[in-house]
Structure prediction request, 288 residues.
Amino acid sequence: MKLIRQMPPEMMPSPDVPVGELGEIRDVTMPGPAGDIALRLFDPRSAREPGPVVVFYHGGGFIVGSIDTHAALAAEISRRLDLPVISVEYRLAPEHPWPAATDDGEAAARWVAENGGAAFGRKFTGLVLCGDSAGGTLTCVTSAALRDAPAALPVILQVPIYPVADVSKAYPSNGEFANGYGLEAADMAYFGEAYRSDPQDPRASPLLGDLSGLPPTVLCTAALDPLRDQGRAYAAAMIEAGGQVTFREFAGTIHGFCTYRGVMASAQGDLGVVLDLVSAQLTEARVG
Prediction:
């Protein structure tokens, strides 16, 4: 397959706002399953008491995106939650097709749980797994992996934001919002061709896996998103499996809104609602 790295102009992400001021931004490299993985800490504080850490997976269809493209989002998460956020530079297709991204996502969470405190000069007590779009998929897949074989720290919350939850079949929203809503049908075909996943495998379609015993979840969808119905189905299936789920769908907005704050007036407020829901769940977890 011909290597794909330069995104067509019509698929380039809209600009986000600047990263802004933080107490510390620090780059660290960890050993991964097939080479080094870059990690970047975003923290509004230069020092802090022991507490949870957010492990963040960027979106981009598993073929584009990076720590840099999602730096502003990771920084905003850290500020709004007042928590350290560690963003993961996982391998991308087509050079590294599925399951390379999922392998790196799991390895990064395990490494942060065991070594992250010392590497970043902090003491971590639990993991919050979070990601948008493709990163939302990695969030779900990693949560399941760490449920089955726990890491050195517990996963206390997962936050998949408009995730790819089930590529094994078409959902009504795939057709309803196929064109004209930002994430075009051609884009999704382009991503799928490059990623080359097995649609029936839960590491590609987490909805198809065992959803019992997963951590509390905050899951958000966009009402005008071709992936909307996958997210809805995943949230419903988690509830049916006995999970604790906070679900929010944002009306009148499209896939990727969390990284469109520089051009979309509603995006900052919508992201704020997402993070308020996360904050409320973290407060509940600490009280509990």
